[in-house]
Amino acid sequence: MVDFIKFKITDEVLINEVWRNPILVYDGKADKIIDNKLKKRITRRYENLYFTKFFNRLEISGSIHKFYNNDVHNADDFTIKKVIQVIDHLKEIFELDLEKCFIINLEYGINIISPIAINKLIANLIYHEKRQFYRTTKHLYYKIAGVDAYKNIKVYNKHVQYPTFCKENTFRFEVKSKQAKFINKLGIHTLSDLLSNKTHQALGCSLLQEWNNILLFDRKANVDEKYFNTNFWENTITVKSRNLFNYHKKKYFKQLGKSNLHSKIHGLIHQKILQLM
């Protein structure tokens, strides 16, 4: 489930130990003004992982899923066992004290085979909570919600990105944290937490909860036509009653019944999470 990760080290001794490791390759440097003072920022690299040294910390970031696959792709299933292997590998070669590696950002998600044509599925993903999905690129099979929030949700066709490494109709559902406080609520603070099955269970539960917050148009269902109108949902958000959106969302799901597209995908996500454990 885990993909991109960013963590920081503030312990000066550990920073120096990591920084002087000859395996790191120079990548570049930049200057940045902080509190009216010019601060230098130097970046080194190991494979696809970037090590950026600031005046008071070292930040390490990159996709550990791609790292596992030699930076070729992140289109296959990334099991807990593989995550632990990567963390143990980094711990060994950089002599990391995992309790001193504080996670800042985390990206985690799941790949499933869409039960309908994936272009139709993505087109009919409308809201996550009260934040609308929209396209940030020219690609038709990619949407994101919550860019300005403490987390965002990405949905896209993984096969378009990596056609050689995954099946057609592969749907990627992904959560990206933008603030440490979000993942801290899941019990994730340091790299050592990623070695625990309990942590990955929490990530799995989080994915299911975030999917529950999705508003998906199920156009094969027999429901009031107004519920397929994006202007209707926009109006429920802009009126003074803050509960109107959720009120109609509950009515919409009630009309869908138990056997609907949203619940089918929930079941597929749940099955895949269990397979990755």
Report on this structure:
With 277 residues, the protein is of the alpha+beta class. It has helices at 12-19, 64-68, 80-94, 118-123, 158-161, 180-184, 197-212, 230-238, 244-256, 261-276, and strands at 2-9, 25-34, 37-46, 49-53, 58-63, 102-113, 125-128, 131-132, 142-145, 151-157, 170-177, 214-216. It has a nine-stranded antiparallel beta sheet with strand order 2-3-4-5-1-6-11-10-9. A three-stranded antiparallel beta sheet has the order 8-7-12. A hairpin with a 2-residue loop joins β7 and β8 (131-132). α7 (197-212) runs antiparallel to α10. The N and C termini lie close together (9 Å). The mean pLDDT is 91.
- Give unreliable regions as ranges: none
Terminus-to-terminus distance: 9 Å
Main sheet record: 9 strands, antiparallel
Query: How much is the average pLDDT?
Result: 91
Structural class: alpha+beta
Report the order of strands and helices.
EHEEEEHHEHEEEEHEHHEHHH
Radius of gyration (Å) = 21 Å
Give me the number of helical elements.
10
Instruction: List how many beta strands DSSP finds.
Output: 12
